[in-house]
Design brief:
By secondary structure, this protein is α+β, with helices and mostly antiparallel strands. Helices cover 16% and strands 22% of the residues.
Length: 85
């Protein structure tokens, strides 16, 4: 298990399902896509609409394209998906 990233700050959170541990399964608020006091993720950083997240339950780190706000160009979204970032 990875340690928490030094950038992990409880003040910067996101409510996105963890692709590794699925700890929010069976949670009614999460199932209704509402914020939940238990199943949040550390928002380590972002590049426009691309979020860099860490799960506090399993410490998995990943990127999530939110499609919200200042989105990156379509080419940057496609290119970053091809390189595995």
């Amino acid at each position: 298990m990875l340690p928490l990233d030094p950038q992990a700050d409880i003040g910067r959170r996101a409510w996105v399902a963890c692709p590794n541990c699925d700890d929010a399964r069976g949670c009614d608020p999460c199932g209704e896509r509402r914020s939940c006091s238990e199943h949040w993720r550390y928002l380590l950083s972002n590049t426009g609409s691309l979020l860099h997240l860490q799960c506090p339950a399993c410490t998995h780190v990943w990127e999530h394209e939110s499609g919200f706000g200042a989105t990156r160009s379509p080419w940057r979204r496609i290119g970053s998906g091809l390189t595995g970032h």
